[in-house]
Each structure stands twice: as C-alpha cells, then as structure tokens.
Amino acid sequence: MIASLEGIIAEASPTNIVLEVGGVGYEVHVPVTTAERLPGLNQKTKLHIRAIYREDTQALYGFATREDKDLFNVIIDKVSGVGPKIALGILSQHNADTLKAAIATEDVKLLSKCPGIGKKSAERIIVELKDFMGASLLTPSAAKIAGGTAPANPGTKAQSLQDAVAALTALGYKSAEAEKAVLKAMQMLGEDADVEALVRGALQK
C-alpha cells in the first residue's frame, strides 16, 4: 500500500497533479487546499497518500499534511454514503482544523455548504464522527475556533472563521492562506472576535 510519494510535479491543476517518482508518473487527486500549498511545476514535493482500489476504479488521493489525510480517511471509512469524491470536496473547502471545529460545535450550516453535502448529510457526518473522534476534534487550533469543549453558542466561532476567510478570498487571497491568516488573528484577538475584527487582524499580518 502506498503511504506517501515524493517526486517532481510534472502536471498540475486545482484538483489533480502528476507526480514523477523514479521515472514513473503517478496521477494523484488532491483537494484545493493541498494544491494551493504545492510548489510550481518541475519542483519537488511530498504528498501523504491514500490509495483506493476497487473493481471499477483505482485512484490515489494526496494531501499536504498527515492530518488532512487522516481526516479524509475517517470521513470515507466511517460516514455512510460519503465517498472519496465528496470527502475531497469537503477538504477543498476547509482545512482539518476548521472541519474538526465544525464537527465539535455541531455546525450543520458550515458543513452543508460543502459540495455534495446537504443538511441531512452534514448531520450524519456530525453524528457519526463526533463520538468516534472524541478529543482529537479539539487540537489546539481547532479548540481556538470551537471555543472549548462546550461553547456557549455552538457553531458561531466556526461561522465567524468561515465568513472572515470568505472576505479575504474575495480580496484575492487563496483559501489556505486566508484560513491561516484568520486563525492567527483569532489567536491574537480572542475567540469572541467578530468577523470585521478578524479580517482587519488578518490583513495586518
């Protein structure tokens, strides 16, 4: 089983790359959040890989971080009715910390905005993953977004993060850069900072 690949980027698009390793080109599906972190063509990079072999398809899915790969694995292995394509779409919209915060705070609204995810699917993701993942949902960054294990207003902090990220992307930021900047602003300003304050703080970085 392929766990990781390190090689030269021969071709690239927002959702697929061809990684040349030892003279062999591997087509790898990637979320947009990973594609935005990769170097340019003919540059070396490493991806954490989930290989899926089925009767009708063989595919490689690559991620910039082990955490993103682990979350992808949990989604497709534990949530009924959610396959690799939808899971990749979810991770294209939000990074691992944002998704964990959304699950921990039961933010159905945020999850249902992901491609292929309606309200019922979002609720199923929350129900099936919250108890299974437990404390792992609250990494230091995710805890900052979620506001602790029992936030007073579930979902509001994750929603503020999403709105601030959307504002930055409208100004030309890539989504991964926007989320990183907003997370730093939230750590400085506090978990109750409103969207306007988060955007101002992120722009000052």
Which features does this protein show?
205 residues, alpha+beta, OB fold (Dihydrolipoamide Acetyltransferase, E2P), DNA polymerase, domain 1, five-stranded antiparallel beta sheet, 10 helices, 50% helix, 18% strand
The global form is globular
Radius of gyration: 17 Å
CATH superfamily of the largest domain: 5' to 3' exonuclease, C-terminal subdomain
Low-confidence stretches: 148-155
Q: How many separate domains make up the residues?
A: 2
> What is the subunit organization of this protein?
single chain
- Corresponding CATH architecture of the largest domain: Orthogonal Bundle
* Overall residue-averaged pLDDT value: 82
Describe the largest sheet. Answer: 5 strands, antiparallel
- How many alpha or pi helices? 10
Strand content: 15-25%
What is the CATH C-level name of the largest domain?
A: Mainly Alpha
User: N- to C-terminal separation?
Assistant: 41 Å
- Tally of extended strands? 5
**Topology as H/E string?**
EEEHEEHHHHHHHHH
Short description:
This protein has helices at residues 32-35, 66-78, 84-93, 96-104, 108-112, 119-133, 140-146, 156-170, 175-189, 195-203; strands spanning 4-12, 16-21, 24-29, 44-53, 58-63. By secondary structure, it is of the alpha+beta class.
